[in-house]
Design a protein that fits this description.
Blueprint (H helix, E strand, L loop, with lengths): L4 E5 L6 E7 L8 H6 L7 H8 L6 E8 L4 H12 L5 E10 L1 H6 L4 E4 L4 E4 L10 H26 L3 H9 L2 E3 L1 H7 L4 E2 L2 H38 L7 H14 L4
Parallel strand pairs: 2-3, 3-4, 4-5, 4-6, 5-8
Antiparallel strand pairs: 1-2, 6-7
Helix pairs in contact: 2-3, 8-9
């Protein structure tokens, strides 16, 4: 059977494992259909068993899926929630429907600037008389409540707010997901912030180095003049130093 996940050991960081979830998320009972057609699929129980091999290790969870079976997603969500290491989810393309529920299990969720997250109400097909259809609607209401639990736990928003977003079948860009609490950041932003901080640090380092060189120059000049003329006062030396610094545009 072709799995819709793939664990990859990070040789550069032995304590970190990369996990990719791609393709449809399916239940145990439908996995054989995907196997028959050679499509990615697997059972949540098999996923849980493989995940247990990486206890205590940090996991980078890459997600690219349109979603699928909500109960299969719930099984994967619970397995990830029970994991003893840190889980960082990275959505590089899409995390829609049930796939967005899986993402909620992560300790930190980051989205690509071109990634999409979509949440909506659970769907099903039903047939029968009016009692059967009403029963199906009641079941969907219950399933929605379980999905809301995952979204609310992550976003800290009210159930009514999240419910309205699900009713509207909401598509979120990376910035929208961060704004609504479904993601913690955008992939690449932290690197940009880090570069700005490093630039500021380096600039100050250059200025400090220039000031030290200027002080040495003044000390040398002071020693040179000492043999030919009386020592300048401290005020005179400070004035000369400020003039030189201004000429070099360091202040």
């Amino acid at each position: 059977m072709i799995k819709f996940w793939n664990f990859v050991k990070n040789e550069a960081s032995p304590d970190t494992v990369e996990l990719r979830i791609e393709g449809d998320i399916v239940s145990d009972s439908r996995a054989w259909i995907y196997e028959w057609f050679g499509e990615p699929a697997a059972s949540p129980n098999a996923f849980r068993n493989e995940l247990s091999q990486y206890k205590g290790q940090d996991i980078t969870l890459w997600i690219d899926s349109y979603g699928g079976d909500v109960f299969a997603a719930a099984g994967i969500y619970n397995a990830l929630k029970s994991h003893s290491g840190k889980i960082t989810a990275k959505i590089d393309s899409k995390a829609m429907s049930a796939a967005s529920v899986i993402a909620m299990a992560a300790d930190e969720i980051l989205m690509s600037p071109v990634g999409i997250m979509m949440i909506h109400n659970p769907l099903t097909g039903a047939s029968g008389d009016m009692r059967d259809l009403r029963k199906a609607a009641d079941v969907l209401d219950t399933v929605k409540e379980t999905i809301l639990n995952a979204y609310v736990a992550k976003t800290n928003k009210s159930r009514s707010t999240i419910s309205a977003l699900m009713d509207d079948e909401t598509y979120m860009s990376a910035s929208d997901a961060v704004k609504n609490g479904f993601a913690d950041g955008i992939i690449g932003e932290e690197e940009e912030k880090s570069n700005v901080m490093n630039f500021s640090f380096n600039r100050f380092a250059i200025m400090n180095s220039a000031n030290e060189s200027m002080q040495k120059l003044l000390d040398f000049e002071k020693a040179r003049q000492a043999a030919a003329a009386p020592l300048n006062t401290a005020e005179d030396l400070e004035t000369e130093k400020q003039k030189l610094l201004m000429e070099l545009e360091l202040i």
